[in-house]
């Protein structure tokens, strides 16, 4: 399930939620809880479908996710609802999040310069990384598609991460856990490995990441050093 990786890689770019922070399940639970009361009477039995629709869109900027789910389920969300839901998700993901198992040890063992490229806001990224004792590993190289105004799947945030290093995208490799993120990295000309370690359905998630353009997938952060070792020789 992989393609040959034969060009030299000198820099590592990581997505945040679902790669560094085990926050996807938190975001999913909060979004489902917050959106269920908006289901119209004719769709009160659509709770499981709503849950699946949210899960499939994790990795998108929250407002874009809300746009699509609102349209699909006719929730009738207003501006104040968007603000309240964003606040609830951001607070939970900042205050309750834990690191992905093994990620700190894996990153500490990798000598490549490291950056973060995420659709979350800078405040949320910093808060989550600080809580999980990961912030110092990235030496200020933290980039937000939310701040850029062109979130994933647009390539801008990955291009910004490469530019922040002063290197060409082809010198970087990305780790991402979402279809949105994989497409963003591919569009930027950055090779990407898909991570499924905190996915709800690892097999399905892996197949979808490969279809989106990931070169290979893995589900245990203890595998990351070995996956990257051939690129740093």
TrEMBL record:
Key word Lipoprotein present: no
InterPro entries (UniProt xref): Beta-PGM-like (IPR051600), HAD-like_sf (IPR036412), HAD-SF_hydro_IA (IPR006439), HAD_sf (IPR023214), PGP-like_dom2 (IPR023198)
Coiled coil ranges: none
GO molecular function: hydrolase activity
Domain of life: Bacteria
One Pfam entry name: Hydrolase
Family under the similarity heading: Belongs to the HAD-like hydrolase superfamily. CbbY/CbbZ/Gph/YieH family.
Stated name of the protein: HAD-IA family hydrolase
Originating organism: Collimonas rhizosphaerae
């Amino acid at each position: 399930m992989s393609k040959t990786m034969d060009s030299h890689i000198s820099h590592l770019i990581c997505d945040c939620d679902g790669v560094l922070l085990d926050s996807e399940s938190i975001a999913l639970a909060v979004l489902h809880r917050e959106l269920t009361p908006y289901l119209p009477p004719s769709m009160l039995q659509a709770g499981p479908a709503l849950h699946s629709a949210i899960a499939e869109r994790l990795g998108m900027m929250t407002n874009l996710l809300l746009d699509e789910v609102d349209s699909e389920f006719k929730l009738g969300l207003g501006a104040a609802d968007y603000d309240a839901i964003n606040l609830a998700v951001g607070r939970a993901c900042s205050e309750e999040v834990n690191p992905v198992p093994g990620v700190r040890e894996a990153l500490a063992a990798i000598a490549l310069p490291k950056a973060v490229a995420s659709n979350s806001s800078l405040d949320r990224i910093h808060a989550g990384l600080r809580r999980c004792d990961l912030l110092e590993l990235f030496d200020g190289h933290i980039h937000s598609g939310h701040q850029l105004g062109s979130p994933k799947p647009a390539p801008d945030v990955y291009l910004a991460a490469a530019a922040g290093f002063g290197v060409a995208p082809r010198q970087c490799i990305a780790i991402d856990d979402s279809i949105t993120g994989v497409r963003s990295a591919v569009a930027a000309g950055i090779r990407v490995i898909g991570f499924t370690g905190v996915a709800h359905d690892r097999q399905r998630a892996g197949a979808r990441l490969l279809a989106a353009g990931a070169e290979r997938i893995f589900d245990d952060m203890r595998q990351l050093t070995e996956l990257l070792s051939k690129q740093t020789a």
